[in-house]
Amino acid sequence: MSSDNEVHDEDNFQCEHIITESHKKAIYSISICQQALSDESEEAFLFATCAINQICVYKYTIIDEKSSVQLIQSYCDSDDKEYFYDCKWTMFGNTTILAAAGLRGVVRVINIAHQCHLKPLRHLGSVNQIAFASEQPTLMASSCSNYAVYLWDAEAALCLANYVGPDQHKQGVLSVDINYNGTFIVSGGLDNIVCVWSTQDKEIIENMAIAKRGPLFKEFRLSAPHHVYFPIFYSNTLHEHYVDSVKWFSEDIIVSKSADHVYCIWKFNVEQKDPNILFRWNRSEKSNIIFDVRLGLSVTRKLMAIGRLDGSIFIWNMTTLPDQPNILTHRESKSMVRHLSFTHNGHTLIGCNENAQIFIWRLSLS
Prior knowledge:
WD repeats lie at residues 166-207. The chain is 5% helix and 47% strand. By secondary structure, the chain is mainly beta.
């Protein structure tokens, strides 16, 4: 088991921009759009933030080796009691889509090009996190405070399945991720439990086909979510506190984090009862229990990042574990970093904190 007494300084990130949003509240989620922008350099991208009942969309560009950030769209929910906890990008065909969810249990689905809202996805509890499958970009998983995980066709606004039953989460589900192929969902909750669920039940596959037919068909109107009562994998030994961040790193490797600052990289196998833990890291010093602090992963460069209470950021190179993390600090970053997101190539890292600040870090390639 490692501690944070040493610093592994391999990846040299420099802070390029600091943006402070006007609401002055905690930004819970930041998400980078991985789709390339037409007529732009390969380093240009969109990213979004959500805080209170607001969603902001920014454009990052590089011209003549100089980067700039511009706020291009913003949305304010009509319900002033809403508080967005998460936002994610996906594609419906060739259309760029941004989805955001939170306290009121409504997933807002936004067509960025036309600046319009599509049909909302309604839950019976607060939605803590959402995730889209890269290979099936209309497939969305959501974690809910009512102890359940849901699978949606977000384009059709049809709930395909709900995962709830006797051998599952016994408290609110904080975190969720769906793998690249859309075949498995991993979830973590307030009960310290990690579950892996399958999306390949016959009834779910049938609902997926119905969703593609569209709402004009009788089968669509009469369809109902398939109830899944048992996960295909279940562990209450990986973590001893709230599991507030889970991520698929590859087809069978999952990264999970709990509120007591324990991070696990483990291998998932349906045939095995216990997870195969590849790496486990625990902060050595005593610290407050804080949840809803989420991991950032760059799969292509095999980097893992997590924000800390003092505003610093830990970055691990997952190919050199158990080497110690590189620590990023900035004199303006003094409050807890809630969420981090990498660009696809891992060259840019964006973080958001409790003071409505956004920090954009760029890898120095020189």
